[in-house]
Amino acid sequence: MPLTINSFKGDYAFLSNFFPAPTIHDGILYNCSEGAYAAAKSMDLMERIKFITLNGAQSKKLGQVIKCREDWKEVRVKVMCAVVLDKFERNPALRKLLIDTGDTMLIEGNYWHDTFWGVCNGVGTNHLGIILMEVREMLK
Prior knowledge:
Blueprint (H helix, E strand, L loop, with lengths): L3 E2 L14 E6 L2 E5 H7 L5 H5 L6 H8 L8 H19 L1 H8 L5 E2 L20 H13 L1
Parallel strand pairs: 1-4
Antiparallel strand pairs: 2-3
């Protein structure tokens, strides 16, 4: 196992929120954790339902144009924690893969300049990687 996983692609694609894995948030089942996360940006049930059948890329795109709830910046990390935890609790094969990463540092390395959830060009807070490592510890 490498000391650091810094790309959620290939063998580590399962770490990505775009990876197809049934995920429930607020009682609604989505195709992937990206859908659950993006839907949570809205408090409107009719808006959330639009994300149910979308894949990760479609969810991200729609999530960028919906009207966000007023407290989104304050709750987004908490929402991501809940979504990621559900993804790995609900999907035993993925849970095993996550646990099997051991104590490896998980970094959501990217080229699209997401320095909040990940790291781009060595810069970023890596909130998604940190959440994944916290969830891994909880599930061990």
